[in-house]
Amino acid sequence: xxxxxxxxxALPWLESLASAAPAVAKVADAAKGPPVRAAFFYVPxxxxxxxxxxxxxxxxxxxxxxxxxxxxxxxxxxxxxxxTLDKARxxxxxxxxxxxxxxxxxxxxxxxKTSGADIRVGQSADQYIAANxxxxxxxxxxxxxxxRGLNAGNCDSGYSCAYSANLSWRSEALPNAKETxxxxxxxxxxxxxxxxxxxxSRAKREAYNRSILDFVMEDTRQxxxxxxxxxxxxxxxxxxxxxxLEQRIDRAKVQSSRKFTAPADLKLPTAAPKExxxxxxxxxxxxILAFQADITRVLTFPFANDGxxxxxxxxxxxxxxxxxxxxxxxxxxxEKIRKINRFHIEQFAYFLTKLKSIKxxxxxxxxxxxxxxxxxxxxxxxxxHDNLPILFAGHGGxxxxxxxxxxxxxxxPLMNLYMAMFAKIGAPVKSFGDSTGxxxx
Length: 441
Fold this sequence. Notes:
16% strand; eight-stranded mixed beta sheet; Alkaline Phosphatase, subunit A; two-stranded antiparallel sheet
């Protein structure tokens, strides 16, 4: 790590430093290899299933309209069919599919139907992993998001807002609130956890318009003298990425602070789609830096709360997402929904592409990752919770092949996929949520 007042900048894998380690440690590290990371992306309101599902099973499957942005990555992901989230179904609890979908997506547990303080669902898969390997990194886990949510109130047919706004649950009654402010995430990743020093360094940077990297310049100079030319280049690229991201966050902060007085007869839009796309990519870049520097090995990132009625004006769509998802087979609504679905996949492709561009040893960061993308609802109009739209990307350290459309037996619990991930990341367990075993990936 590079250290300065109020600042700790974690470093990516550098072979020069590994070669300088004691011989015993080198043998152990070589046997273990770089760590495997786990990420979970969530999208609300389901998808247009025919435009998501490949016709061919196995290898060399076709890429439907929604998945076309992943064309350059087809050997790095699998499309998984017939995975089911039974605990998102009513099971006697009546309406509330959106709240149950998001609450059960990583827990496999039926959320207690309440809009009060007595919420209960279960520990989520990301937090199970964090509890087992989180002590090996600065942050046990990182929870990112775009839409803030409440942890109280009635948001879906008698279900607490906590269910539809939180993907990560530390325990059955304690959600991990996601961070939606890129600046706050940046400070969390690169601050030194000393509140007084952190506040001082932030004040100095803002007063003198300096970068967080200026505070670790001396450590950087000393480190550079120890590195081979390839590692010096890698360090320069990494620190440049940190600085550029810091600058983008500062620009976004300035733009969002600008105010104007709207004419009385002007109906303001319900969302700012262009800013939304930049927001998503800023968060993706922060998550990538956190993985690259091994600040955390566990990430969750919902693109929106379930039931979100966000408009996507940049796509020419002024209606709300949730409103459109109740399409009743209307062709015009279906066309708009498939555009939203594809837009989300474009953001996911951005994340995967950047992971693949970062070298780690003789492989890439994507080779040492397991990334799940999906929704707890299949078809938004039907509100079904079987045959969910699920993608699995990354190679888990080399143990997982990509480029396949895998269809499991009907009603295979989604938790069986997480069971397989737990084993590959070194934290096997006998059962999780409503799991019935494991699956091959």
